[in-house]
């Protein structure tokens, strides 16, 4: 359970860094979201999940 809480904490740190260091980039990305199809969003989400699982597997074994 502590690993899950650490993972959530790191997620918030990374999100906060992106918003703090590049707010105009985030705003531009948000403007582009309606132009991206649902299928592209799903594919990007699945790719992110796959990379996350791969990273955890590599670190945790």
Keywords:
3 helices; about 85% helix; mainly alpha; about 60 residues
Structural class: mainly alpha
Q: Rg, please?
A: 15 Å
Q: Can you tell me the number of structural domains?
A: 1
List the helices and strands in order: HHH
Residue-averaged pLDDT: 94
What fraction of the residues are assigned to beta strands by DSSP?
A: under 5%
Output the number of helix runs: 3
Distance between the termini: 18 Å
How would you sum up the global shape?
A: flat
**Largest sheet descriptor:** none
Ranges with pLDDT <50 over ≥5 residues? none
Number of strands: 0
Q: How much helix is in the residues? A: over 70%
Write a structural description:
87% of the residues lie in helices and 0% in strands. By secondary structure, the chain is mostly helical. It is flat, with a radius of gyration of 15 Å.
List the helices and strands and how they pair.
Elements: H1 2-21, H2 23-32, H3 38-60
Produce a short descriptive summary:
The chain starts with a helix and ends with a helix. The protein is mainly α and 61 residues long.
